[in-house]
Write a structure and sequence with these properties.
globular, binds coenzyme a persulfide, alpha+beta, Butyryl-CoA Dehydrogenase, subunit A, domain 2, Butyryl-CoA Dehydrogenase, subunit A, domain 3
Length: 383
């Protein structure tokens, strides 16, 4: 749902200009140093991008899902590490609170998340619980009015910068499934919470992940999201439904950027006496990419509108994440192919993007998990 066409168009234009003038020119520096310069972080804050989806009453922009995906598409035309920095505050790091938190919990954290003063991380994955998230082993044992947490969370996006973590832990040792899990808000600096070293990743330099380790970490029971024990897995799944739409949107933005780069290269590069864009085999790769991007965009906008209408979009979100991330991988591959040998050289952005976008088919649920969710929901609906 677009509430005011003019306002959202102005915001998209502002973000597009920022991407073109500030973010793209700094991509090589970020890749070399593995850090986003402070001035760019400040600009992201000043533009309000940390609070896109945080309700206005808590200081955010309160964008609808349709509005949010339009902005995400624009932002994703620059290196994915920039989007990753604002991603957790808008998505998986804050949504648990927004969807299921108490009013007090929202008031304490959301205003600072909206400005980017506080960074949020979502700590679900563990060394032995990735796709099978409900099997997580981090324990939270009741002790008076507190819980004591023990366990390790793995590959946690933005953890090295985070001031606050949404942590899924097992509060009911007897219940080994989803119903035994609760979601906690845990602040950085809480005794017993420590971080592992930064992971060395295939791509997305400038975006950081690491382990988050809990060793007898004492947390008040009032830090359980919504004060509801056993509701944490559902909170995580609802959070991911929204997150998957956002990821699908960034797959579109990244694919548009890669195709734009490939088209420009194909129009410049001459072989056999003419630009390679004039060869039909190259044209086929351009046309297939354009078609698939259009399909993904249509899907994501439709699913976003349905979510804005209050519909359950669990199936549609998985369809979008599956199609858009796989599409993005195909576009990346064709864009390298169009660049030829140059596509394998780091002087061209496509070499970096090819590695960066590989993550989209993995995180917030692999393609295979999306297939499983879609088919399961189909069977459930039919029954
Ligand atoms: N919204 C609300 N509730 C949901 C839900 C959703 N989208 N998905 C599941 N639930 C509920 C179910 O209704 C069920 O509730 P009841 O016990 O009351 O019936 C409960 O949660 C357990 O669901 P389910 O039985 O489907 O859980 P499973 O363990 O079988 O499988 C999958 C869940 C595989 C879908 C889940 O583990 C998953 O998404 N895995 C991928 C995790 C992931 O994306 N990790 C990335 C980390 S973040 S970067």
């Amino acid at each position: 749902m677009i509430r005011d066409q003019e306002t959202i168009e102005a915001l998209c234009d502002t973000v597009a200009r920022f991407v073109r003038d500030r973010l793209i020119p700094a991509e090589d520096l970020v890749s070399e140093t593995d850090e986003i310069p402070h001035e760019i972080v400040r600009d992201l804050q000043e533009l309000g991008l940390f609070g896109l989806s945080i309700p206005e009453e808590y200081g955010g922009m309160g964008l609808t899902m349709e509005e949010e995906v339009l902005i995400a598409i624009e932002l994703a035309k620059a290196s994915p590490c920039y989007r990753s920095l604002i991603g957790t505050n808008n998505g998986i790091g804050s949504q648990g609170l927004i969807l299921d938190g108490t009013e007090d919990q929202k008031r304490i954290y959301l205003p600072r998340l909206a400005t980017g003063e506080l960074i949020a991380s979502f700590a679900l994955t563990e060394p032995n619980a990735g796709s099978d998230a409900a099997s997580l082993q981090t324990t939270a044992v009741k002790d008076g009015d507190d819980y004591i947490l023990n366990g390790t969370k793995r590959y946690i996006t933005n953890a090295p910068r985070a001031g606050m973590f949404t942590v899924m832990a097992r509060t009911d040792a007897a219940n080994k499934g989803a119903g035994g899990i609760s979601a906690f808000i845990i602040e950085k600096g809480t005794p017993g919470l420590s971080l592992g070293k930064k992971d060395k990743k295939m791509g997305q330099r400038g975006a950081h992940t690491c382990d988050v380790i809990f060793e007898d970490c004492r947390v008040p029971a009032s830090n359980i999201i919504g004060h509801k024990e056993g509701a944490g897995f559902k909170t995580a799944m609802k959070t991911l439904d929204k997150g998957r739409l956002h990821i699908a949107a960034i797959c579109i933005g990244a694919a548009e950027r890669m195709l734009e780069d490939a088209l420009r290269y194909a129009m410049d590069r001459k072989q056999f006496g003419k630009p390679i864009a004039e060869f039909q085999l190259v044209q086929a790769m351009l046309a297939d990419s354009r078609t698939e991007i259009y399909a993904a965009r249509s899907m994501v906008l439709d699913a976003a509108r349905r979510r804005d209408d209050g519909k359950d979009v669990s199936t549609e979100a998985s369809c979008c994440k599956l199609f858009a991330s796989e599409m993005c991988g195909r576009v990346a591959d064709r864009a390298v192919q169009i660049h030829g040998g140059a596509g394998y050289i780091s002087e061209y952005a496509i070499e970096r993007f090819y590695r960066d976008v590989r993550l989209f088919r993995l995180y917030e649920g692999t393609s295979q998990i999306q297939q499983l969710i879609i088919a399961r929901n189909m069977i459930r609906e039919a029954a």
